[in-house]
Amino acid sequence: xxxxGVPDVPQFEDLNWDSTPWASWKAHKNAVxxxxxxxxxxxxxxxxxxxxxxxxxxxKTDILxxxxxxxxxxxxxxxxxxxxxxxxxxxxxSLNTALQLLVSPQLETATGTxxxxxxxxxxxxxxxxxxxxxxxxxxxxxxxxxxEASQKLAARALSAAP
Length: 162
Prior knowledge:
Elements: H1 24-45, E1 52-54, E2 59-60, H2 74-86, E3 88-89, H3 90-102, E4 113-115, E5 121-122, H4 140-160
Parallel strand pairs: 1-4, 2-3
Antiparallel strand pairs: 4-5
C-alpha cells in the first residue's frame, strides 16, 4: 500500500539513497512508483494470481514519530491532531475499505489494478503509463526498468546478509 498515481520518474541509479542526498518526499514517491511497478510486474509474470495496489490516503499512525521528534514531541502531537481531524484510523480504513474491496468479486478479473481510499479504481503512477493513450496503457519498458533496479538492490542486500 502506498500512493499510486504519482507522476515522478524514479531515480533508478540510487534506489537506496546511498550516494544521493536524502529527500523524504522524493524517496516516498520513488517507493510508490516502485510499488506500482511491482504490482504490474507481478501481475504480468504470474497471471494465475491477482495483484492490486491500494492507496489508503491519509491514515493516522505513528509512522512519523521518530521523524517528528519522537512520540512525546509537540510537533508529533500536532501532526496527530491534524491527521486525526482529516484522516482515517487504521481500523476504519481496514474494515470499511480494504477488507470490503479485497473480498469483492470484481477483483477476480482485475489483477494489476489500483484503488484509492474509497475503494474506487485509479490509475497507477503516471510515469508507468502512456499519456498519449485515452485508455490505460502500461509502458512495459518502464515497469521493467524499475523491476531490474529493484532486483539489483535486493541482490546487493542479500549478498551482504550474514
